[in-house]
Amino acid sequence: MTQIHDDRICTLGEGPLWHPELEQLFWFDILGMRLLTRDAGGPREWQFAERVSAAGWAGRDDLLIASETALFHFDLNTGARRDLCALEADNPATRSNDGRADPQGGFWIGTMSKKGDEEPGAGAFYRFYRGELRKLWGGITITNSCCFTPDGRTAFFSDTSTGKLMRVALDAEGWPLGEPELFLDFAPLGLNPDGAVIDADGLLWLALWGAGCVAAFAPDGAEVRRVSFDAPQTTCPAFGGADGRTLFCTSAQVGLDAAAHPHAGKTFAAPGIARGQKEHRVIL
After folding, report:
1. What's the pTM value of the predicted model, to 2 decimals?
2. How sure is the predictor about 44, in pLDDT bands with cuts at 50, 70 and 90?
3. Which of 153, 154, 157, 150 is nearest to 126 (CA)?
4. Which of 9, 12, 140, 175 would bridge with 30, disulfide CB 3.0–4.6 Å?
């Protein structure tokens, strides 16, 4: 049974991250330039001067955060920011989007135009690993679906504008081996792949923007389950909770009638769905 984890409305909710040491969920409102969470004291948030979209945990009180200009270290106790490297800082037309830590301690992050699919091919995927940021692929319009198999040997990503979910083999250090190949094509179905996460048993859980759900796919590409949420624009899933079996999902209100969709933009939780992987720590 799905429920509302947090009723604050995000214009563009994204990047949910269950911090395994703090045991709480963090997520972003990209257009609102906010990082949000809930702790024992209730709702909490941090406001930034630029768009922020994704994070990995680097320590008990430390996050790596992706913004429209940089990857930076963020101290949750003091709010202090320390830039680690620039991220398309010389291009004011783009911003960060989907990102996730990989099993080797790296961090994958995508960029895209602030105008979305009005500027095709403006985005790219990068990987930050032990202090180095390396561009992986360019010419992507809406970067999404970064996720990794439990053995760390395969990565997935998508370009939402094309509907194609890709996969690529990884070497022992987490760098791509060869060229990506098509895993699933949602374009003929009229579906839009957004954020994704892979559980401990290898199922890929994918938010479908516009369909109000997160769908699970087996390694052979077969759809095995859907979990629906009361918001049409589901954006990204994450597993967490005390037992690691709660499926969280962010959503977006942008472009929707708030009266018709009163829960759009809220963050949801569905307990007892599947056994998630513990989120990997980013090595700074």
Report:
1. 0.98
2. very high
3. 157
4. 12
